[in-house]
């Protein structure tokens, strides 16, 4: 029997299972201090004072496991390069910024020299102004050209919200420059009647990689004037382009460079990133170009108080009688409520859409008990909302009408939330880079700020709140992406051929894997070779072959059965677990039951209801080794890396009582299996190793299963992923290895680079895994060490002590580091 743990692509997270029962400005530079929103007066309380109020009382104080005080830092000024036009400098000064920080001036100099550059400095360090100054200056130069259109620039953001926010910022900054700077957003929300104006007249177009992939590049003849004049491409928040999404974006950018060359332009790339390891290397892999790095942050920073917060144990017991901590969702709802009552402007970042909705509802209900007006100043913000809903929330946040917000990472990426006093992070967000990005949303005016990381009941979060050095004494991760992934590259070669026939000289642009893929695409009837190159042969759009977000397939629309009203969407890959027939679905505080999931038409029909339970999908998984790329001995066992095929099928769902999490029943489902070809790391153990670790046949399955769960939970410390990006399978006797085996695999077709990173850091990764299990205070295993909220086998069997002994024996002969593959 195989025991499995699934990635988000197959298994939606239901973190807030019993939470209802357990609970009874100008972003381009912060060189100046923005105004507080209307209606808010007086000085802010210090972050230490706010934390003291939150932790008052013996039970609350015990929840803080560590407090890190980061002192304020003075800024270092410089002067703008002399080539920046005086009108632009005057506009910057009019915005209240007298002098640039040193890193802003350095990055602008590189941009004006025609060098691609990545600015990798802290949140609110003025990265946007570093690229806007040279971009606006160059656009002004172009506006005086005799051809009328002049120079153009393209801005790419990972989210629509960030692009809209940047347009507001550019308009404010460029207002003194008149209509010579014409910024416009071009995305899926742009009305049809506005799109032609943007193509013809805008000289600073703000969009996202999705629209570039599906809308602009396939229609490049209509954009010929813009692309011919393209001087700069700005890539904001470039650290978010990692894994499969980052690999897709890397190929989209190569297609853009190819089309630009066709029109005679060679744009300079200006990238902005949160602090990251090796930013120039990551930016070079993303763009395919040499990139200069600017990473010496010269901006000032206010005091930051960062608290690690562990929710208390409850009287409830979970699966197998394991002790259960209060959920991070419930604890965060309490903190957001208390911060709102103090008048502290706050954002709570939540991992899941469901969690954001629940936190908002709970905070509103509690505030309404004493002040209904205050309750209306708290809301949720997440992906899946309709465009008009998102825009209304963004306006309310900017105006100060909202005092507290429960948000998914849709709000993490650079949206101007100046004036925030506190950030609460409900669960480790997967990477240190993302953690600091979220924490940096507070104190963006240079004043003091409070950040709180609330631990979820899982191995990684528990490890971190008791090992603060893993957060505060370690550098951020290196961004992982693999543009040569054949599952990523193949559809982009087709899209490129549809845009312009592919030629031999083009292949070097797309990487070393491209020549080998072309015969396969010809054999599949997707491309046809002629004397002048390779041509797209189909009627359908080549750009529709792939979803660059890595989900694949059309989003499933969630429709209210009685009215036909569209409530939102869910990724096709998550539909089997999130909106299967009988699933409980939350939307803006309302509860719905899924009556039907129509996979053919990509529609889930729902009806409003108030069931006294939540639902959790259960599934089965099997894994087959396709090819072993490399393997090394670990004592008598082996550590391997290669290609695998994973077959998963959602077979049923559990209904759990909201009050206790008690299982009320299981309902069978008839859904088709899903097959995934991907990359994995796996390790085997021999009979001699099992004997040395005192692992009997009776506990072998539980020991392997427990080690698998914990290792998945700990991998985000060593790769730029989170546990939802990866999956795992443990097998007491695998038919391909003929040994007890634990697999951890990338949850995306073709792989995302996470399993490869795990292979190269295996000794440190599995050492941390062993420590996380061994140091947990529970007796037989709990969600803080070996239980998983997404286990397809209901966390059965698990054997905590066996996992510790097994990992101890495995690590006894582990090499320091595997060689490069």
UniProtKB/TrEMBL annotation:
Residues 331-487 form the Helicase C-terminal domain. Keywords: ATP-binding, Helicase, Hydrolase, Nucleotide-binding. SUPFAM superfamilies: P-loop containing nucleoside triphosphate hydrolases. Pfam families: DEAD (PF00270), Helicase_C (PF00271), MZB (PF09369), WHD_HRQ1 (PF22982). Residues 108-294 form the Helicase ATP-binding domain. GO terms for molecular function: helicase activity. This is DEAD/DEAH box helicase. It comes from Streptomyces tanashiensis.
């Amino acid at each position: 029997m195989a025991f499995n743990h699934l990635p988000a692509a197959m298994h939606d997270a239901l973190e807030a299972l019993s939470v209802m029962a357990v609970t009874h400005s100008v972003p381009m530079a912060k060189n100046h201090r923005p105004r507080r929103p209307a209606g808010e007066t007086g000085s802010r309380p210090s972050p230490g004072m706010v934390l003291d109020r939150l932790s008052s009382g013996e039970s609350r104080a015990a929840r803080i496991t560590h407090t890190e005080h980061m002192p304020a830092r003075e800024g270092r000024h410089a002067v703008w390069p002399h080539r920046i036009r005086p009108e632009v400098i005057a506009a910057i000064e009019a915005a209240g910024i007298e002098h640039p920080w040193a890193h802003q001036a350095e990055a602008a100099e590189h941009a004006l020299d025609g060098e691609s550059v990545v600015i990798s400095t802290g949140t609110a360090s003025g990265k946007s102004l570093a690229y806007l100054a040279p971009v606006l200056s160059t656009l002004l130069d172009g506006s005086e050209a005799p051809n009328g259109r002049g120079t153009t620039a393209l801005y790419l953001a990972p989210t629509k919200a960030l692009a809209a926010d940047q347009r507001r910022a550019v308009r404010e900054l460029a207002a003194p420059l008149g209509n010579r700077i014409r910024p416009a957003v071009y995305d899926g929300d742009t009305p049809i009647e506005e799109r032609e104006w943007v193509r013809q007249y805008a000289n600073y177009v703000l969009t996202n990689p999705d629209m570039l992939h599906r809308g602009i590049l396939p229609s490049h003849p209509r954009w010929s004037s813009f692309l011919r004049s393209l001087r700069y491409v700005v890539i904001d928040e470039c650290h978010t382009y990692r894994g499969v999404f980052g690999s897709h974006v890397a190929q989209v950018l190569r297609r853009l460079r190819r089309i630009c060359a066709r029109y005679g332009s060679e744009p300079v790339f200006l990238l902005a990133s949160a602090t990251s390891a090796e930013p120039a290397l990551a930016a070079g892999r993303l763009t395919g170009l040499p990139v200069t790095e600017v990473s010496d942050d010269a901006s000032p920073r206010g005091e930051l108080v960062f608290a690690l917060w562990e929710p208390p144990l409850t009287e409830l017991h979970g699966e197998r009688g394991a002790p259960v901590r209060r959920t991070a969702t419930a604890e965060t709802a309490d903190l957001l409520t208390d911060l709102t009552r103090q008048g502290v402007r706050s954002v709570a970042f939540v991992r899941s859409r469901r969690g954001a909705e629940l936190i908002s509802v709970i905070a509103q209900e509690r505030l309404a008990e004493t002040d209904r007006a205050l309750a209306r100043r708290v809301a949720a913000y997440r992906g899946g909302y309709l465009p008009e809903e998102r825009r209304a929330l963004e306006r309310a946040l900017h105006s100060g009408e909202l005092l507290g917000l429960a948000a998914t990472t849709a709000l993490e990426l650079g949206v101007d939330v100046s004036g925030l006093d506190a950030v609460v992070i409900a669960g480790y967000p997967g990477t240190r880079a993302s953690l600091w990005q979220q924490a940096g949303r507070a104190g963006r005016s240079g004043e003091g700020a409070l950040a709180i990381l609330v631990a979820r009941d899982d191995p990684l979060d528990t490890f971190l709140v008791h090992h603060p050095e893993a957060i505060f004494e370690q550098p951020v991760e290196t961004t992982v992406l693999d543009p040569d992934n054949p599952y990523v590259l193949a559809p982009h070669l087709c899209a490129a051929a549809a845009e312009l026939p592919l030629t031999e000289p083009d292949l070097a642009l797309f990487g070393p894997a491209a020549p080998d893929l072309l015969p396969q695409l010809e054999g599949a009837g997707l491309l046809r070779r002629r004397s002048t190159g390779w041509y797209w042969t189909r009627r359908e759009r080549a750009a529709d072959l792939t979803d660059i977000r890595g989900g694949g397939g059309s989003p499933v629309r969630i429709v209210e059965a009685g009215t036909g009203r569209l409530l939102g969407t869910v990724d096709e890959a998550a539909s089997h677990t999130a909106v299967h027939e009988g699933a409980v679905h939350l939307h803006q505080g309302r509860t719905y039951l899924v009556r039907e999931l129509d996979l053919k038409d990509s529609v889930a029909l729902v009806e409003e209801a108030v069931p006294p339970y939540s639902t959790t999908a259960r599934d089965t998984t099997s894994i087959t080794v396709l090819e072993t790329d490399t393997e090394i001995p670990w004592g008598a066992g082996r550590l391997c890396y290669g290609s695998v095929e994973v077959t998963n099928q959602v077979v049923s769902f559990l209904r759990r009582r909201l009050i206790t999490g008690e299982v009320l029943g299981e309902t069978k489902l008839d859904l088709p299996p899903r097959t995934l070809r991907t990359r994995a790391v796996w390790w085997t153990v021999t009979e001699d190793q099992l004997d040395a670790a005192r692992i009997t046949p009776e506990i072998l399955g539980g020991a392997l299963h427990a080690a698998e769960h914990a290792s998945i939970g700990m991998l985000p410390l060593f790769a730029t992923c989170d546990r939802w990006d990866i999956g795992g399978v443990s097998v007491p006797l695998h038919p391909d290895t003929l040994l007890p085996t634990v697999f951890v695999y990338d949850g995306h077709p073709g792989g995302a680079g996470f399993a490869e990173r795990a292979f190269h850091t295996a000794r440190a990764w599995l050492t941390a895994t062993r420590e996380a299990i061994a140091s947990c205070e529970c007796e037989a295993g709990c969600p803080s060490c070996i239980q998983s909220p997404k286990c397809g086998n209901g966390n059965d069997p698990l054997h905590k002590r066996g996992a510790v002994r097994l990992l101890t024996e495995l690590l006894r002969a582990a090499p320091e580091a595997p060689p490069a593959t």
